[in-house]
């Protein structure tokens, strides 16, 4: 079985849509897929969160959310302010391992950036990925500023001894400017990690059939096959 962590250089860079695209591509390849979102913030009880969007776009129904907090803050801060229990890293690991036993691929979507505190004792996605021995896909912005943000994120992964499976541009504009075009060449040069995919801007507004049909084309084919079949 295979576990892949999806993180981002910051919030709102397209993690959920990239997670859905990876899930859809895996389903198209005939794999059974599960998606875990350890902590959802900024969504009230009963309202659709990120996992509802993953299901809508990809068709994957094996989705697990472990904690939800109503205020749009880092999970540990949101937990403290709400008085709700904080996530424990060990509980997340147990849940993901159980999903891994039953599925070919488990995608774990983080909250915000790589070092956002997710719960008790200040654990982050780095701690979770290390406990799961799982590589990470980094979702990055396309525009000016992404070189610094992406290099910092990948350096943090490297310092923790974690593998970066690749960088994906979370929202590639219809009409890229000079900075976006240069960043495609500069990102691998400064990070040492290939850009392995880019999701067109607005893809999250597609219907499920259109999204599923296109998802695999947004990634490098060789990388996608190797990543989905890694054990």
TrEMBL record:
It is found in: Cytoplasm. CDD domains: DTBS (cd03109). The active site is at 37. One of its GO terms (cellular component) is cytosol. It comes from the Bacteria. PANTHER family: DETHIOBIOTIN SYNTHETASE. This is ATP-dependent dethiobiotin synthetase BioD. It catalyses: (7R,8S)-7,8-diammoniononanoate + CO2 + ATP = (4R,5S)-dethiobiotin + ADP + phosphate + 3 H(+). The gene is bioD. InterPro entries: DTB_synth_BioD, P-loop_NTPase. It is an enzyme of class 6 (ligase). ATP binds at residues 12-17, 50, 109-112, 170-171. Keywords: ATP-binding, Biotin biosynthesis, Cytoplasm, Ligase, Magnesium, Metal-binding, Nucleotide-binding.
